[in-house]
Amino acid sequence: MKKLLLISSLLVMAPVAFAQSAAIFMPEGPLTIETQSGPVTITAEVADEPDEIATGLMFRENIAEDRGMIFDFGTPREPNMWMRNVEFPIDMVFMDAEGTVLAIVAHAQAHSERHINPGFPVKGVLELADGQANAFGIRPGDQIIHEIFGNAETGPAEDTSDSEEAAE
To answer: Which fold has domain 25-152?
Structure first.
């Protein structure tokens, strides 16, 4: 009887243990959203490898309000996003190759297998905690500043002043 109970417990817990280990954490860095109300900067993980793009936010418990995940498809394409194995609702922001916001899907429902597609090619998708697109004031036409779009500063500005003028 004890063996049966032990085996049953292991069978019940195995999927939970697998799900916890299946979450993938990716490189992260700053991402700025230039909204009409002013800039908003968050920390975003970058999903740019096929396994990272396929997994996204699956198997995680939540995402903080000041964080996000940006999917970089490289060449613009029509994405088919879904919420399978995502434990919480999110907002999705779709951007073109320059980082311009083209469309927003708010309140994508957890565990839904409905495909979410803006209907046109995009270079990236930014996933945020549920309600954050509205809280940040993100609207179509806003600009996402991030290295995947080639519009982020990569280091300190170079001093272009003439050395003779600087000596005076």
So the answer is: Jelly Rolls (2.60.120)
